[in-house]
Amino acid sequence: MRKHMILSGRVQGVGFRWRASQIGEMLGLTGWVRNLWDGSVEMEAEGPEETIDQLLQMLQNDRYIDITGIRAKTVPEEGGYGFEIREDE
Asked: Mind telling me the catalytic residues?
């Protein structure tokens, strides 16, 4: 499965993108993450649903990150390799 997510809260300026890419790679997920102009973060993650949930839980458990909202939808799978940090929107 692949999820497209917009995450809000304390998610910029706290290493969110770096942590997301590191955890995503460690868990074997593919996808990407980038900052949005409004202070939120956009992310897509592909893999087993429970592993995507684990990624989100591990991010929330980071002492600097505070996710207060997630808007998520399922999107078509793309495959690919790695978990990249994209340029800010």
From this structure: 17, 35
Q: How many domains would you assign to the chain?
A: 1
Over residues 75-88, the pLDDT tens digits come to 999 988 999 999 98
Distance CA 1, CA 10 (A): 26
DSSP for the chain, written as a single string: -EEEEEEEEE-SSSSHHHHHHHHHHHHT-EEEEEE-TTS-EEEEEES-HHHHHHHHHHHHTSSS-EEEEEEEEEE-----SSEEEPPP-
Q: What is the CATH number of the domain that holds 37?
A: 3.30.70.100
pLDDT digits (tens, 9 = 90+) for 16-75: 999 999 999 999 999 999 999 999 999 999 999 999 999 999 999 999 999 999 999 999
